[in-house]
Amino acid sequence: MSPDLRTRLANVELANPILTAAGCAGAGRELAQFFDIARIGAVVTKSVMLDPRAGLPAPRMAETPSGLLSATGLQGPGIEVFLQRDLPWLLARGGRAVVSIAGGSPAEYAELARRLSDAPGVTMIEVNLSSPNLADQGRHFTDDPAAAARVVHAVRSHTRSDIPVFAKLSPDVPDLVELAVACVQARADGLSMINTVRGMAIDTTTMRPAVAGGVGGVSGPAIRPIAVACVYEVHAALPDVPIIGMGGVRTGTDALEFLLAGASAVAVGTVIFHDPSACVRILREFEEELEERGVRRAADLVGAAHRPMGAQPAR
Amino acid sequence: MSPDLRTRLANVELANPILTAAGCAGAGRELAQFFDIARIGAVVTKSVMLDPRAGLPAPRMAETPSGLLSATGLQGPGIEVFLQRDLPWLLARGGRAVVSIAGGSPAEYAELARRLSDAPGVTMIEVNLSSPNLADQGRHFTDDPAAAARVVHAVRSHTRSDIPVFAKLSPDVPDLVELAVACVQARADGLSMINTVRGMAIDTTTMRPAVAGGVGGVSGPAIRPIAVACVYEVHAALPDVPIIGMGGVRTGTDALEFLLAGASAVAVGTVIFHDPSACVRILREFEEELEERGVRRAADLVGAAHRPMGAQPAR
Amino acid sequence: MSDFRPVQMRSPVLTVRRVDAYYAVTVVAPGIAERFRSGQFIAVAVGGEQSSMLSRRAFAIHDVKPDYGGTVEFLFAVRGKGTAWLAERRSRDLLDIVGPLGRPFPLPRDPVNCVLVGGGAGSAPLFPLAHTLRRRGCRVDFVLGAASADRVFSAITARRVAETATFTTDDGSFGVRGRVTDALPQVLEDAPSDVVYACGPMPMLREVTALAARYDIPVQVSVEETMACGTGVCMTCVVPVVGEDGITRMARSCVDGPVFRGERVRFDDVGTIPFDALGAPGWKARGDDPVSAREAG
Amino acid sequence: MSDFRPVQMRSPVLTVRRVDAYYAVTVVAPGIAERFRSGQFIAVAVGGEQSSMLSRRAFAIHDVKPDYGGTVEFLFAVRGKGTAWLAERRSRDLLDIVGPLGRPFPLPRDPVNCVLVGGGAGSAPLFPLAHTLRRRGCRVDFVLGAASADRVFSAITARRVAETATFTTDDGSFGVRGRVTDALPQVLEDAPSDVVYACGPMPMLREVTALAARYDIPVQVSVEETMACGTGVCMTCVVPVVGEDGITRMARSCVDGPVFRGERVRFDDVGTIPFDALGAPGWKARGDDPVSAREAG
Ligand SMILES: Cc1cc2nc3c(=O)[nH]c(=O)nc-3n(C[C@H](O)[C@H](O)[C@H](O)COP(=O)(O)OP(=O)(O)OC[C@H]3O[C@@H](n4cnc5c(N)ncnc54)[C@H](O)[C@@H]3O)c2cc1C
Ligand SMILES: Cc1cc2nc3c(=O)[nH]c(=O)nc-3n(C[C@H](O)[C@H](O)[C@H](O)COP(=O)(O)OP(=O)(O)OC[C@H]3O[C@@H](n4cnc5c(N)ncnc54)[C@H](O)[C@@H]3O)c2cc1C
Ligand SMILES: Cc1cc2nc3c(=O)[nH]c(=O)nc-3n(C[C@H](O)[C@H](O)[C@H](O)COP(=O)(O)O)c2cc1C
Ligand SMILES: Cc1cc2nc3c(=O)[nH]c(=O)nc-3n(C[C@H](O)[C@H](O)[C@H](O)COP(=O)(O)O)c2cc1C
Ligand code: FES
Ligand code: FES
Fold first, then answer.
1. D172 band by pLDDT with thresholds 50, 70 and 90
2. Residue (of B168, B150, B183) closest to B98 by Cα position
3. Which member of B15, B195, C137, D256 has the greatest number of CB atoms within 10 A?
4. Which residues belong to any copy of the FAD-binding FR-type domain (chains C, D) (predicted)?
5. Starting from the edge strand earliest in sequence, which strands make up the sheet with C113-119, in order?
6. Does residue D230 line the site of ligand 6, with CB under 6 A?
7. Chosen from A33, A79, A86, A281 to mutate, greatest number of chain C CBs within 10 A
8. Is residue C120 predicted with pLDDT exceeding 80?
9. Fold of C105-224
């Protein structure tokens, strides 16, 4: 009997816990050339902003060991085009849409939430908080739990009540648990972790920073142990808050690792660049991992690494 | 003409900028089986404490993509054995000794500094600040710039004036530049960065944390972009303070990358586990990199990535 | 559209040959060979199962053959870690390949005169193009340049396929000393040309585009921007390109390109976000129907 | 000492053979072959130049031969990523190897009776040991166990070299059903033994040590602790071992071992820091000359 892969994120149930990570799969269209996007738990779309955005100049990326350093600057078409072109396309293909949003102020986020709530078919909203806070000299919302909470609160207040709101956190913060608690108190229904890790590379030929933005974000398997630690610690502090875990997931075993640490779903990002079929391959591998262990329900494994030795879930 | 590789760290001049990283090369004895340790800039020894220390239980490590997650708990023989057995051995082989110290209170650090100042032959002291502060419920000294400053001040006050004191920083701090400034104001002669990055792995077979300590430190090439960003930012803020850069150095090109970011010397850690000859190989590769670029003096490259485009050093 | 969509496959290596400064790798890849159109490329995963190298390497398809159901050949020079790994492959190894990718060279309807300009490894995609053009009755003139003789691409094939083939090398070790753009004006003078196709480094493409404009000849350029995925999801390969609506967009060279009309590429602004690009800082929307605005390309 | 120090070399692979559930790899490594003593191991870098796998994999040396200046053979079962990569090597590939490493099996001076006990792949180092012991006129009895028939190691060689060879499998598919420790008492009863050598998983070594103690026979065990470097610098491979001075130390199994006297290893405390270990939390120094205190092992 094949294992039950369903997972619950607040009041939403997904067919399985394998999602795409925001900004690594567009709105699903490009990947649909390689597999049926209706088969994965959900497509988390690239963070959308109110207006079109050109992003940062090239070079936008440098390869690092088992990772990628990137600074794309949230290039995108804006909410208007997203609602008219990208979202309907995804829904028509049977995909579940988790829409990631980004803005420069709580009001912008709120406006995005309102527009998405009016549109049919949005399964969840993910609030990308790693965006510069225009009111605070370009500090990011994640740098300040109070600022992050204001954004989450604004989004939650303008989102239809049946649409869960997840707050996406960055690991580069003074106190991750404090930030997580602030978001939950501001009524986030769940948390997504982690966004990229601050990093830099120098091009030894030009002797200048390798990405035009100077500092960029590190993603990919290199950051997986950092991400697992974040998920583990936040799940320990907030065991009832659902988490979408991400950071370097490459195989079904990696997805399992995130579940054990406390994630209820797992998003695949950078590895998609390496393997456009990654999500379905990981889903298959994940299912095999459960079968090998005789685990009947994926949901039973969430947070299992926190239980005392010997108290791992019944097989 | 082969390039001039000499580098200056405060009032000390080293023959070349390639060092071992603390805790990754013992006190040089094991590596001496593979190369002449007098050839590298210096051996940075494993952090020594006042008393012998058994460290943490096994399993102490897990392999992660392009990295290693480890928690060894500073196992070591204590300062007494170090001074009687390890240091004399290293000096007899012609090695330059940078001695790393760790303690639980400023007084312990001070006592270590005093003992080392009395011993002949110590080139430098590196203060490992990623050690639990016994007076502060096990928080690390790096978590609190004031506590770190107290340690640095105590060490500097008890160290012979011709021995430079370098403060070793962790990247997992609320504000790295603030911490660096606090250490320098407490009269650190230079900074070493970075120590390992907080991380975790779950063993998907036992479904428990993969290292006995639960949380561990990630090292190796995976963290290099994080380390380069730290060195770059601190050098930008404190351009006159010498830096020993480290974190995932694997090749001569990587060493060059750290110099360009602002390091005056570069330490090799985890990669030694993979290649016991790494330090001399990297030294050779580094020299070749300079030759290819027609760079006459390694020291000219320190911080070159900060200079405006086109102002890279004369070849 | 679905007929042309790329496929991902684990392709057995048939042969790896040394050709002067290049390696020529032939893989068995029926799905890619049958879909291929000139100008398209493949994206190859490098380093094996446990590779530390996550981004795919892009290579123009140099040749496809019907053998074994369909083979694909690409050529490359060793440049960094990924190409060093590729150069060590042996026959029967498997390569994880995605392709064919990208917008192909648009082909003329009529048997017109075409000049094909390539620099170094950038000449690769011009060879299948030359064959296709010849099959359509076009005249083909080649101008191929490189740093030195051993980096000039398939000179013999070029001579065989084309009406004329001009070679340039920086060091004068083969053909004319200088750059392709030094030799191009003469070629354009000698034979009245209807279209120029160019592939190579960005500065070369800029100059070729400027020259073609001077002679009032349309030019199609294939750009080589750093790529991570090749499939359009990572947004790292962007170049500023003017759309049909006159609006500049940061276009992905892997899916909106790599082939663009030369005059559409804002070569002088490559590596920047032009202030008037869609969504540039301070940009304000013109027009009120952003969806119908045609994508750049 | 310097004669025995390990060397690092890039060794060409001579052959890779499938032997039941194992792969047997022979490499050309003269420096390692000539220094080798039974019980020592090699540490192999896996994954190639751009590998994402940083820790070396340890394998017991199974055989050395004088061919090509000196070859070394090791056997392994595919377990994880590194062994999967190794299994794909072909002849002429190069492997980065460090060896010989670790403390070898101490050999008896006189021609005594020796029982060699091995579990699964852990049997590998017992074969060169058996040959050496035989050369010294010792009697050798083998007890080899495994999960199933295809995991029993070199049964034919064992029969040829040893006076008696007893086999056990968990599933009874070969030899006696059960574990080596079920069969060992009979072997010790049948032939009066002077020393036991054992190699295999920790629980097996614990039981063999307990049995040998019951028969009052000295036992040498070779432990298999997770290793990252194999050369003594990473401090990850520690086990609690009682020194000659009675003090327990966290000994590095790669340089202080992998061979220890069985009764010195605190098997029940593996995976912990015993409260009375040197430098354990709360530990207070006894004696005042810590340097002269002999290292564990
Ligand atoms: C559409 C297209 C077609 C190409 N066709 C060919 C060809 O036929 N023959 C050939 O020799 N080369 C070709 N190139 C360039 C080729 O992709 C690079 O030489 C190769 O990626 C370098 O990889 P590396 O690992 O050796 O270098 P590294 O420097 O180790 O690569 C590091 C990273 O930078 C990227 N990168 C580096 N240089 C380039 C580049 N010039 N273009 C794109 N990405 C780059 C790599 O993909 C990788 O992500 C093409 C590039 C593009 C975009
Ligand atoms: C002294 C010694 C001798 C050995 N001799 C043999 C032999 O002759 N034949 C054989 O098949 N196996 C032997 N082993 C075990 C062998 O080292 C492991 O099977 C191998 O490292 C697993 O690597 P992997 O990449 O397949 O597994 P992974 O699980 O991917 O390895 C991950 C990490 O764990 C380490 N590791 C995992 N299992 C072990 C283990 N059992 N012992 C040590 N490190 C481990 C690896 O080195 C690596 O760092 C020996 C181990 C030691 C310590
Ligand atoms: C090129 C790129 C673009 C990204 N864009 C976004 C984005 O738009 N919104 C967001 O919340 N996260 C974005 N991320 C972060 C990822 O969603 C993810 O959190 C992070 O990369 C870690 O996962 P990974 O290691 O699997 O990539 C981006 C990451 C990359 C590499
Ligand atoms: C096993 C291990 C032990 C270490 N022990 C110490 C130590 O004793 N003192 C210290 O300051 N840093 C210690 N470090 C940190 C390294 O010195 C270095 O800062 C870090 O590993 C980053 O460099 P790398 O990526 O080259 O290993 C240790 C690292 C490892 C992996
Ligand atoms: S290479 Fe990823 S979008 Fe073009
Ligand atoms: S494996 Fe590194 S010290 Fe033993």
1. confident
2. B168
3. B195
4. 6-107
5. C176-177, C164-169, C139-146, C113-119, C195-199, C219-222, C259-261
6. yes
7. A33
8. yes
9. Rossmann fold (3.40.50)
Question: With contacts defined as CB-CB under 8 Å, which chain A residues touch B198?
Answer: 226, 229
- pLDDT, tens digit, for every residue of D9-45? 999 999 999 988 899 999 999 999 999 999 999 999 9
Chain centroid to CA D276: how far? Answer: 27
Closest by CA to A23, choosing from A168, A212, A140, is A168
Residue-level pLDDT at A311: 65
Task: Name chain D's partners: 3 or more CB pairs within 8 A.
Answer: A, B, C
pLDDT at A270: 98
The C-alpha atoms of residue B307 and residue C233 are separated, in whole angstroms, by 34
Structurally, chain B folds into a number of domains equal to: 1
- Answer positive or negative: Cα dihedral of D246, D247, D253, D257: negative
User: By residue range, what is the domain housing residue A301?
Assistant: 7-56+73-198+219-306
Cα separation, C141 vs D185, whole angstroms: 88
- Please write the tens of the pLDDT for every residue from A237-278: 999 999 999 999 999 999 999 999 999 999 999 999 999 999
Out of C55, C225, C279, name the one closest to residue A63 (CB). C55
Contact A187, A193 (CB under 8 A): no
Whole-Å CA distances, B8 to B17, B233, B297: 9, 20, 12
ipTM over 0.90: yes
Confidence class of residue A191 from pLDDT cuts 50, 70 and 90? very high
Q: Assign domain C7-101 to a CATH class.
A: mainly beta
Closest ligand to C-alpha of residue A130 is: 3
Burial letters D225-242, b for 16+ CB under 10 A, else e: bbbbbbbbbbbbbbbbbb
Is residue C235 lining ligand 5, measured as CB closer than 6 Å?
yes
DSSP A196: P
Nearest Cα to A265, choosing from A295, A288, A235? A235
What's the one-letter identity of residue D223?
V
Q: Is residue A94 part of a domain?
A: yes
Whole-number average pLDDT of chain C: 90
> What is the atom index within ligand 4 of the atom nearest the CA of B68?
31
Nearest to C218 by CA among C264, C270, C257, C185: C264
Please judge whether B64 and A224 are an interchain contact, meaning their C-beta atoms are less than 8 angstroms apart: yes
- C119 marked among binding-site residues: no
Residue D19: the pLDDT is 87
- A131 noted as active-site residue: yes
The CATH number assigned to the domain holding A233 equals 3.20.20.70
How close is the Cα of D232 to the center of ligand 6, in Å? 4
Q: Where are the domains of chain D?
A: 7-101, 105-224, 227-284
Between D151 and B262, where is the model more confident?
B262
| Residue to substitute in D46, D51, D55, D57 for testing ligand 2 pocket (most ligand atoms within 8 angstroms of CB) | D57
CA angle B279, C53, C11 (to 5 degrees): 135
Percent of chain A with pLDDT over 70: 98
A275 falls within a domain: yes
Q: Which residue of D has its CA nearest to C83?
A: D50
Q: Best mutation site among D49, D50, D92 for testing chain C: the one with the most C CBs within 10 Å? A: D50
- Which residues in chain B have Cβ-Cβ distances shorter than 8 Å to D237? 58
Is residue B267 within 8 A of residue B20, CB to CB? The reply is yes
- The two tokens of residue C251 are 């276009």
- At B46-59, the pLDDT tens digits run 999 999 999 999 99
Cβ < 6 Å from ligand 4: which residues? B 21-24, 46-47, 68, 70, 72, 74, 100, 128, 168, 195-196, 219-220, 223, 246-249, 268-271; D 234
Question: How many angstroms separate the CA atoms of B185 and C195, rounded?
Answer: 68
| Percent over 70 (pLDDT), chain C | 94
D266 alpha carbon to ligand 4 midpoint, in Å?
A: 28
